[in-house]
Amino acid sequence: MKKEIIQTELQYKAVRSSGAGGQNVNKVSSKVILSFSIENSLGLNDDEKKLIKQKLSSKLTSGFVLILNCDEDRSQLKNKEIVTKRLFHILEKSLVKPKPRKATKVPKSVIEKRLKEKKSTSEIKNNRRKLDF
């Protein structure tokens, strides 16, 4: 993943924030919407694109575009920084390959303990029965 190349491919759009906030909300476009096309990115190789598509499938549009919003701050510039950091964090997180799980053997002592426990429970239940003469 080449952050410098990806940084140039990002598309920002400033819109008005929703919700309460008085006069500032009605006249200032501080909310930032970031869109990043994974399919057309030159900063990602084919393996990275495939991995991102798999892991972020629920967050992508049908054209493999990742869209993120930020309206946390009153400043458009800060919102732009926040949403950019968020994008790179999501991309880095999705590129981490999980370690393969190694299957372990169940120890003999655990198997023996379970069988002893079963046997003792069986004996207890057998002792509760009425004797048949």
UniProtKB/TrEMBL annotation:
Keywords from the UniProt entry: Hydrolase
Any one GO molecular function term: hydrolase activity
PROSITE patterns per record: RF_PROK_I
Xref: Pfam families: RF-1
InterPro entries named in the record: Pep_chain_release_fac_I, Pep_chain_release_fac_I_sf
Domain Prokaryotic-type class I peptide chain release factors: 16-32
Taxonomy, superkingdom: Bacteria
Keyword flag Glycosyltransferase: no
Family of the protein in this entry: Belongs to the prokaryotic/mitochondrial release factor family.
Protein name listed in UniProt: Alternative ribosome rescue aminoacyl-tRNA hydrolase ArfB
Origin species: Flavobacterium hankyongi
Gene behind this protein: arfB
